[in-house]
Amino acid sequence: MTVDTIGRFERALEGLEVEFERVAAADASERIDAVADAPAVGAALPYEGVSLPEAVTIEPTTAELEAARTGVTPVGFAIAEYGSVAVESTADGAEPIALYPDRHVAVVPESDVVPNLSAGFDRLADGFDAGRDSVVFATGRSATADMGDLVHGVHGPGEVHVIVLEDR
Amino acid sequence: MAQRTRSERAERIRHLLETEGPAIHAQASASNDRRKETYGGTDDLEALRTDARAIKEDAIERLPELIETVRAAVEANGGTVYVADDAADANAYVADVVRNEADAADTADASGTTGDADAPSVVKSKSMTTEEIDLNEGLEAAGIDVTETDLGEWVLQVADDTPSHIVGPAMHLDRGQIADLFNERFDPDEPFDTAEELTRFARDHLGEIITEADVGITGANFVVAESGTITLITNEGNARKCAVTPDTHVAIAGVEKLIPTLSDLEPFVDLIAKSATGQPISQYVTMLSPPTDSPTLDFESPDEPITGDGNGAADGPGNSDRDFHLVLLDNGRTDMREDDQLRETLYCIRCGACSNSCANFQSVGGHGFGGETYSGGIATGWEAGVHGQDSAAEFNDLCTGCTRCVDACPVKIDIPWINTVVRDRINRSGDAESYDFLVDGLTPDEEAGGIDPGKRFFGNIGTVAKAASATAPVSNWLADAGPVRAALEHALGIDRRRDLPTFRQESLVDWFEERGGPDASSRRAARAARDGGAEIDREVVLYPDVYTNYVDTERGKAAVRTLEALGVPVRVPDLPESGRAALSQGMIATADRQASRLFAALAEDLDAGQDVVVIEPSDLAAMHREYERLLPEQSFDRLQESSYEICEYVYGLLENGAEPSALSTGDGSEPVAYHSHCQQRTLDLEAPTVAVLERCGYAPESSSAECCGMAGSFGYKQEYYELSMDVGERLATQVEDAETVVASGTSCGDQLEALLEREVPHPIELLAPGHSRR
After folding, report:
1. How far apart are CA B273 and CA A109, in angstroms?
2. Domain that holds residue B707
3. B597 shares a domain with B516
4. Does residue B350 register a pLDDT over 80?
5. Searching chain B, which residue's CA lies closest to the CA of residue A122?
6. Are residues B279 and B375 in the same domain?
7. Which Pfam families does the entry link to (chain A) (predicted)?
């Protein structure tokens, strides 16, 4: 992991109009609370010393999922080259939580940001071997031009915020 | 299916040019421009294309084995694989799955509160394969409600319309038309106006339908055999919702979508958005190995946690509430795989780049340049394979063989060749027509009867030109006479609004002999070399293509003078036709014979180390592209290595010490608008002409229009005249302000002369010594 990769990731996200911030693990919960517009639902973060703020409901009901303004999820890894985050289909619902609310907050440790698509496919293959074989590379905001002009947030989220956790 | 008559076709095209052309052109050309920009910024593009091609070749070769591999993988995950022979088989299977799922849901609900006895419901994401089998009609006939959730597809469903583009199905409708449609259908309190308002409405409306659906149906852009992974490439997110929300997911894919391993997926993920829309990557590259671990979402039980009863245990083989069916569709694909000419079609990843890069497509869209389901250049292969040759015959002529799609295709499919082959097959399937006698005497071809007489006429244009030249000027007077034009239009479909070429009494070959032949040329070249030229020890055989030899002899003379002035002796032997004219009409047997004859006539010169220089780019393109299929490999290589486009050759001479001062040069800033030739661009030979013009003191500016619209005989044909002019207008608009306009191709020059009403010479005429400014 190099600073360059994070810089590249940041630039790619900027081009995609995705918000980006890099935070220390100790501050993560507070920052998530600040950017997760209420009501928020989430999938638990599997990172040591980092937890979701209380305002984010985990294991939401379908009603809560439908009503949520924000979905907070961990992502398996991120690809700096394209600004993509890898949303995994997990039993706690990361995939629908990242998809249904209009705002997705994706949390990824710095060490899980890989430089390019090839490195992303290496990580993907490792995940497949470990049984994590359903993954979405999500890049930027949901978009369509089918109604005559480019519009964001059609079925998927119209806002995306990426939080990179600094190495601890 | 009855074929349309010429006038019916002309009328249909005129209608599309007016109604759908503007919207299609705006979007297709924008996608094409973005593709070019993104391709240009991708360093390893060629390697990616080569990899992608190789993976597809391998996958189609191993298809039967991959079907068994994916069956095992999907079944191990807990899903089901069904291989459907044809549309009816696939539709019946899917209808059964949906009914069973809905029955099961009803039974479960019987103890609950909702008492759902509604019709079974399906939500779908965009899939051309389901369009191919008319799945929606099939399911509706079985009493199942189907809702398209891709916004473009949903617009078409509301409008009861059909896709006009593989990727942007509603591309032919603009915002205003969609707003009118929705205002009428949904009668909102505030009429819809902006794309934003329309999109919000669609999101909410469709979102509700998705949460209530019994089954989600998706296509698949790729299916990874070893892991049973369905890959969906989308921008909206509706495919994710369709796949993840209902507890039953049916993915329908042609068998050709199978690729062996996960690592094989990488180049396609890297390429497909670039080629389709010019995006670096699509918003959502969804790789699902269903049934997935994601919890099912029961919106009818709003207060239950989505994680429910723990069925989504991560260590199990997916969520046990989930049901998954992969339907692999054959529908003619196995036969296509066995067909040496159509097989390549199966490598297609349906990105639409061939449509976007096609000037004719940009003008009429897929409702004109398309068959029952598929559209654009590759559609000829798909339609011939899955719906039959008649469907392809309806629109195959719209491929002019310009080859602009060749560089656009991410898997390097020779799309023009597929069009040529299918055209040839269509020619051979026709009945002998009553006008055959008109062209019989002029057509020493290898074709069986039944071919359209107009095609046969243009396919044998060399013989026609030779006869016309021999009888010029009488032939020209006759051809201009009103009754003759009427007869040509009626019998051969040559539009009377087109100026016909004026045939020269003295051919280029005759002129060359008259001025002393090779001996005189050697003396001239030697004198030029002595008078300050560089020591260039080359000899050129200048190829007298039909048009240069009999019609536009001036560019041939300019080429001879230019080469001699640079110290290179020239010969202009009477050589056989290249086969280009025959190829463009789908007359492959004739082209094959002509290629052999031309190679035989040149073989000794090639062995003697002489260079073959060609003025007409389409003839050079035949030698460099199609001859690979018509000649033995060694012969093809020998000719290809030793043949050059005229300005490319001059560029080489200048790079090797020849002096521009021997030519007609500009003052360094003289603006010249230059339109290269479609096939010349595909051969990467636009740049040398630009470089030569710059070296000789001109300031060339290249056109960016994909094509002039003339495309050899295409613009002469009555049914395509207006389309040809529509395409040509776009080019003319780009170059009309320039004082000097030059074009490399014969038909490009003719088209521009017709549109600009002034002379448009070949660049070599500008450069030739003694050229006087107009």
Report:
1. 28
2. 508-767
3. yes
4. yes
5. B263
6. no
7. LUD_dom
Chosen from A97, A129, A146, A152 to mutate, greatest number of chain B CBs within 10 A:
A146
User: Are A125 and B262 in contact (CB < 8 Å)?
Assistant: yes
Residues B204 and B172 in one domain: yes
Does residue B528 form part of some domain? yes
* Other CB atoms within 10 Å distance of the CB of residue B364: 30
Q: What residues have CB less than 8 Å from B612, skipping those under 6 apart?
A: B540, B541, B543, B602, B605, B606, B623, B639, B642, B643, B644
- Candidates B559, B719, B539; CA nearest to B5 is B719
Considering B402, B422, B442, which residue would you say is the last residue of a domain? B422
pTM: 0.94
- Give dist(CA B79, CA B101) in Å, integer: 14
CB B693 within 8 A of CB B646: no
B554 touches B394 (CB < 8 A): no
Ranges of H-type helices in B672-769: 678-682, 686-695, 721-735, 746-756, 763-767
Q: In whole angstroms, what is the distance from residue B481 CA to residue B477 CA?
A: 6
**Cα angle for residues B430, B434, B437 (degrees, 5° grid):** 110
B84 and B226, same domain (yes or no) = yes
> Phi then psi for B246, rounded to 5 degrees?
-65, 155
- Gap between the Cα atoms of B437 and A128, Å rounded: 68
Q: What domains does chain A contain, in order, with CATH numbers?
A: 5-166 (3.40.50.10420)
**How far is B143 from chain A, CA to nearest CA, in Å?**
27
Distance from CA of A148 to the nearest CA of B (A): 4
Give the pLDDT confidence of B752-772 residue by residue, as tens digits: 999 999 999 999 999 999 875
The whole-angstrom distance between A135's CA and the closest CA on chain B is: 5
> Would you state the pLDDT for residue B310?
47
Q: What ipTM goes with this model?
A: 0.97
- Judge whether A131 is closer than 8 Å to chain B, CB to CB: yes
Mean pLDDT of chain B: 92
Residue B455 within a domain? no
Q: Among B290-299, B595-604, B724-733, name the one with the lowest average pLDDT.
A: B290-299
Residue B65 and residue B88: Cα distance in Å, rounded? 25
Instruction: Characterise B493 by phi-psi region: left (phi > 0), alpha (psi -120 to 50), beta (else).
Output: left
Q: For residue B529, tell me if it sits in a domain.
A: yes
pLDDT, tens digit (0-9, with 9 covering 90-100), for B611-669: 999 999 999 999 999 999 999 999 999 999 999 999 999 999 999 999 999 999 998 88
What is the least distance, in Å, from the CA of B447 to any CA of chain A? Answer: 46
> Is B453 part of any domain?
no
**B175–A149 C-beta distance less than 8 A:** yes
Distance of alpha carbon B578 from alpha carbon B592, whole angstroms: 9
* Domain match, B695 and B737 both: yes
Statement to judge: residues B663 and B528 lie in one domain: yes
Of all residues in chain B, the one with the smallest CA distance to A63 is: B302
Tell me how many domains chain B contains: 3
pLDDT (0 to 100) of residue A143? 92
| Minimum mean pLDDT range among A103-117, B4-18, B249-263 | B4-18
Tell whether B324 and B413 lie within a shared domain. no
Distance between CA B139 and CA B327 in Å, rounded? 15
Looking at residue B160, its amino acid is: D
